[in-house]
Design goal:
With 431 residues, the protein is an alpha+beta fold. It has three domains: 236 residues, Beta Barrel (Elongation Factor Tu (Ef-tu), domain 3); 53 residues, RNA polymerase II/Efflux pump adaptor protein, barrel-sandwich hybrid domain (OB fold (Dihydrolipoamide Acetyltransferase, E2P)), CATH 2.40.50.100; 75 residues, Helix Hairpins, CATH 1.10.287. The chain is 27% helix and 33% strand. Strands 1, 14, 15, 16, 19 and 20 form a six-stranded mixed β-sheet that branches. Strand 14 and strand 15 form a beta hairpin. Helix 2 runs antiparallel to helix 3. The longest helix has 36 residues. The chain is elongated, with a radius of gyration of 44 Å.
């Protein structure tokens, strides 16, 4: 057989291959639509939630004392370490005492001298009185001796005052802490001259309890007052209301306290109302000057609906949620939101407890489009987030009146505050 293929044979073979290709192209592919996207949906959680007023403020010391010397002298000794914790009465500084002891000795000697002069004048007066009765001397001599006695008696009192002054100056050479607290650094070293009423020696600040100052807006103040009037029919009625506080790095509000002061009126330039809260600080963890978050109970919602905050969307119309209807089609629902509870958000209106809210897969869900819903269960927030936490054993919380027009008398503040039974009732019934 010849290996050479004729042009005629090649032409026939190419025609056959072309016929096969053409016959294959005549078969068309049918369009298969992609399945609906899968999303995760959940029913809203229903539980009691306490709504709060939220504020920002800063902390301050309950007591701050600048220690200055009351007598002039050279600083002899420092009895503390910078930054140490001190108690009231602890010795902090000593001014050189020798000049003041000498002054005291001299004052005591002058006092004894005045007493001796007075005793002599009393004896002279007795002798002159006897001579007057015998007409040996005149009444003028008697008057002179009486005046001399009274003068010496007054001199005794003056010298006694000088002794007291010298004793006081000697006592002032020992400078003690007037309060419990933390002492700052010493401002004067040993050997330097200290001027009375001028030289600042150090500062002592009391940290337990600690103050927190915050401003309440005029709207919140008026709303607070209106709710108080509705509850008691007394404009100046003030139930004790607790406060909670959290530092910048704290999760939640771990510190409990109460409000013990509010300004007499609203600041017209800012439209705010200054309130002061008091918080126990036995370990000194809350330092003065810190930025803090503060909240006060507003009202209790017994059947609040909660949804993860990440499920909320926002557009020009406001906040909305995407839900899945009976036909597995996405629906857009405009909602009004309330307070945030941990990672959850209270939905005040626009949502029912039976709605299936899209939690995961929001990017793939479009209103009116079908989806494949996968039902999941939401985890309830912690108890301390949804309501006022119960005090731990051995601790208590103090009463508060965050924006009260009239101020209640606060309890005595020690390392732990005291909460009356009414404070618990105020939380359960709302302000």
């Amino acid at each position: 057989m010849s290996l050479v293929t004729s042009p005629a044979k090649l032409l026939c073979l190419g025609s056959a291959l072309l016929a096969v290709v053409v016959s294959g192209c005549e078969k068309t592919n049918a369009f298969v639509p992609s399945p609906p996207p899968e999303v995760q949906v959940a029913k809203p959680l229903k539980q009691a939630v306490t709504q709060y007023w939220d504020f920002t403020g800063s902390t301050a010391s309950v007591d701050t004392v600048q220690l200055k010397a009351r007598v002039t002298g050279y600083l002899h000794q420092v009895h503390f370490k910078d930054g140490a914790t001190v108690k009231a009465g602890d010795l902090l500084f000593t001014i050189e005492q020798d000049p003041f002891r000498i002054a005291l000795d001299q004052a005591q000697a002058n006092h004894r001298k005045a007493e001796a002069a007075y005793a002599l004048s009393v004896a002279d007066l007795a002798r002159v009185e006897t001579l007057v009765k015998k007409n040996v001397t005149t009444e003028a001599d008697l008057d002179s001796k009486i005046a001399e006695r009274d003068s010496n008696k007054a001199q005794i009192e003056a010298e006694k005052a000088a002794v007291d002054r010298a004793q006081l100056d000697l006592r002032y050479t020992e400078i003690r802490s007037p309060i419990n607290g933390r002492v700052g650094r010493r401002m004067v070293d040993v050997g330097n001259l200290v001027l009375a009423q001028e030289t600042l020696l150090t500062t002592v600040e009391a940290y337990d309890p600690v103050y927190a100052y915050f401003n309440v807006s005029e709207r919140d103040l008026l709303e607070f007052r209106d709710e108080r009037v509705k509850k008691s029919q007394e404009p100046d009625h003030s139930e004790p209301v607790p406060l909670q506080m959290g530092l910048l790095t704290d999760k939640g509000y771990p510190y409990a306290g109460f409000s013990d002061y509010s300004d007499p009126g609203v600041d017209a330039s800012t439209g705010t109302y200054l309130v002061r809260g008091t918080f126990p600080n036995p370990d000194g963890a809350i330092l003065p000057g810190l930025f803090v978050r503060i909240r006060a109970p507003h009202k209790v919602m017994p059947n609040a609906l909660l949804i993860p905050d990440v499920a909320l969307g926002s557009d020009q119309e406001g906040k909305f949620l995407l839900t899945v209807g009976m036909d597995n089609k996405v629906e857009r629902k405009s909602v009004s939101i309330g307070t945030k509870v941990g990672e959850m958000r209270v939905i005040e209106s626009g949502l029912s407890a039976d709605d299936s809210v899209i939690i995961v897969g929001l990017q793939r869900a479009q209103p009116g489009s079908p989806v494949q819903p996968k039902v999941i269960e939401l985890t309830a927030p912690a108890a301390e987030l949804t309501g006022w936490p119960a005090p731990e054993a051995g601790t208590a919380q103090g009463p508060a009146g965050t924006t009260s027009i009239s101020q209640p008398q606060p309890p005595v503040v020690q390392s732990q505050a005291i909460i009356p039974e009414k404070a618990v009732e105020a939380v359960s019934s709302g302000i």
